[in-house]
């Protein structure tokens, strides 16, 4: 398989109410990634635009964004897999480059969730479930993940305090991430006494909607050399899976099988295992999602995830640093931009450019990005 490199990354600040249009929002990440790669528009062979369309007032936003960024007449594609849209877009970009169809591709993810009200947003999130058999009954994301939390706590004997520790960690690093929505620390007791959202999940167990954009530029090895890229980060393994949308068709609730399947594929392709990973970004839309990810990715045995966070092994100085940019819990979760933001963090880590969030000398990094309630799963492994 030909080698494919990440040559440029960018991200807007994630905010609660972006004042401009989606094209202006997308341009912020585009401009940063182009400057990072030292690229011109003529260097980009194709674009992959990623978002969740139920939040977009603009139909076919890919066309509008490609035009605004000056990326015509190159082909543009539109990808949607709910919250994992831009990591799915990365898989498409990798395939386009590895196949030789293009020698460089840009993946641009965005979401302006503030264009609709919170109530409308929750209703649209509910439509990520089956609209015939589940969402008409009022199911929403906090309730779905609360089912997973209840199952996990009951099955393994973990506690709500273990989940709260994950949020304390997220807030620790959110404070030093200039791109994050929430930059305040929280105490364990604050998390445990916060108002319930959907038991056992409380306010601090849940991420928040945000507006934001992310951009990742990939290129062939030859193209990266021709552009003089000094610190390419290589895509070593990509795994992707899906599960039945109806929760009644799932075999278990104390983990996400979609993540397990995607991780197996990514590790096999990269020729690596969980112990080789030096830093990871996981999809922590809720604290329970990060807890399950520890185990689904093989960082801990089933039921041993709480031991990792209790011992602070997932902090920056630990054996497997996870979400040391604050994760979704502190950064916010602009759905179409989330996966690309995770990739950006890992790329900066592998280049030793992560500033105060930098992990010591990482060689391999991993991104775990989930769409819906374990409906889609993407795991991508990167190396220096």
Automatic annotation (TrEMBL):
GO biological process, one term: lipid transport
Top-level enzyme category: transferase
Thiolase N-terminal domain: residues covered: 21-180
Protein name according to UniProt: propanoyl-CoA C-acyltransferase
Record Pfam families: Thiolase_C_1, Thiolase_N
Domain (Thiolase C-terminal) ranges: 245-384
Documented EC number(s): 2.3.1.176
InterPro entries in the record: Thiolase, Thiolase-like, Thiolase_C_2, Thiolase_CS, Thiolase_N
GO molecular function per UniProt: acetyl-CoA C-acyltransferase activity; lipid binding
Keyword Membrane: no
């Amino acid at each position: 398989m030909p080698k494919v490199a990440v040559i440029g990354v960018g991200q807007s600040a994630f905010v609660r109410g972006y004042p401009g249009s989606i094209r202006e929002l997308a341009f912020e990440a585009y401009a940063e990634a182009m400057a990072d790669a030292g690229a011109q528009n003529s260097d980009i062979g194709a674009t992959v635009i990623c978002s969740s369309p139920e939040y977009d007032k603009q139909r076919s936003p890919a066309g509008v964004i490609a035009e605004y960024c000056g990326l015509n007449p190159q082909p543009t594609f539109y990808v949607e897999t709910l919250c994992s849209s831009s990591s799915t877009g990365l898989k498409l970009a990798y395939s386009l480059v590895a196949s030789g169809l293009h020698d460089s591709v840009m993946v641009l993810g965005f979401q302006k969730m503030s264009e609709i009200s919170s109530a409308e947003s929750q209703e649209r999130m509910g439509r990520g479930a089956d609209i015939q058999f589940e969402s008409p009954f009022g199911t929403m994301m906090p309730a779905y993940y609360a089912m997973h939390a209840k199952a996990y706590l009951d099955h393994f004997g973990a506690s709500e305090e273990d989940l709260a520790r994950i949020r304390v960690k997220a807030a620790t690093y959110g404070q030093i991430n200039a791109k994050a929505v929430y930059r305040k620390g929280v105490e364990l007791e604050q998390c445990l006494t916060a108002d319930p959202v959907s038991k056992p999940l409380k306010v601090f167990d849940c991420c928040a909607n945000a507006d934001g954009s992310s951009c990742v530029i990939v290129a062939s090895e030859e193209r990266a050399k021709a552009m003089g890229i000094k610190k390419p980060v290589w895509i070593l393994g990509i795994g992707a899976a899906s599960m039945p949308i109806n929760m009644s068709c799932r075999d278990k609730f104390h983990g996400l099988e979609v993540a397990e399947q995607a991780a197996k594929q990514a590790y096999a392709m990269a020729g690596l295992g969980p112990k080789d990973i030096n830093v990871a970004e996981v999809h922590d839309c809720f604290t329970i999602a990060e807890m399950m990810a520890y185990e689904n990715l093989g960082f801990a045995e089933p039921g041993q995830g709480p031991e990792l966070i209790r011992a602070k092994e997932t902090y920056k100085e630990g054996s497997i640093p996870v979400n040391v940019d604050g994760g979704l819990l502190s950064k916010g979760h602009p759905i179409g931009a989330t996966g690309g933001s995770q990739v950006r963090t890992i790329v900066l880590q592998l280049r030793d450019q992560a500033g105060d969030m930098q992990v010591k000398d990482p060689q391999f990094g991993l991104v775990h990005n989930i769409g819906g309630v374990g409906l889609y799963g993407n795991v991508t492994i990167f190396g220096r």
